Amino acid sequence: MKHQLLLSCIAALSLNAQAEDGWQEWFKDGLGDAQVVSGTATYKVENGTLIGTTVDGSPNTFLMKGPFKDFELQFEVKVDDQLNSGVQVRSHLAKEGDPAPEGSKGGKPLPAGRLFGPQCEIAVNGTAGDFYDEARRGTWWSILTKTEAVRTDEAKAAFKKGEWNHYRIVVQGDHYQSYVNGVKTADFTQPGDPEGNIGFQVHGIKKGDGPYAVCWKNVKFKTL
Q: Are the beta carbons of 81 and 104 closer than 8 angstroms?
């Protein structure tokens, strides 16, 4: 009996420590409350690793959670060389009858169910860690906010092809920051998206290409 009581107390202390620390571990045992939006790519969890796989002819697809305001998100990611990916932050899901998003490049309404907004890039071509305004302005936030000086040679080389890469994304107030393998890769302010969803992207591919995959592990989230 004493042994069982001791184990119960240790378990309770562990849960309290986890709660006080504030970190949540995502996708350890499955997709949880996340939902697939915008396309038909597939997502599954194997041994604590989230695997997103392209589907022939599908547009960009996202595994979405949220909405959230201020947070820190950390993860490790590996992507096939032929594929690029990203993680949406404070992004929005278009609804039927919505007008075109403010500042949108095309000036046309998006199809219902399309996720749009700031995306932290995952790619092997030197853009990793920069933020792209997905399905809206269609350009980099470093250009929009005149913070291109952050995109140093070190920042452009931070992502390692064919390896697991550690990301740290911090969004607080109007301030956005990202780090890839400990190197700062974005640092800007913009007030247009005070709250929104997080979305793990599988990029669309042309018919006849693929399949390609992007994998995330050790996904940790904390509200600030």
A: no
pLDDT tens figures, 4-45: 434 443 344 344 444 468 999 999 999 999 999 999 999 999
Q: In this structure, what DSSP letter does residue 160 have? A: P
* Terminal alpha carbon distance of the chain: 41
Sequence spans of domains, the chain: 24-223
DSSP category for residue 165:
E
Q: Would you say 37 and 199 are in contact if contact means Cβ atoms under 8 Å apart?
A: yes
The CATH homologous superfamily of the domain defined by 24-223:
Exo-inulinase; domain 1 (2.60.120.560)
Q: Are 23 and 220 in contact (CB under 8 A)?
A: yes
13: left (phi over 0), alpha (psi -120 to 50) or beta: alpha
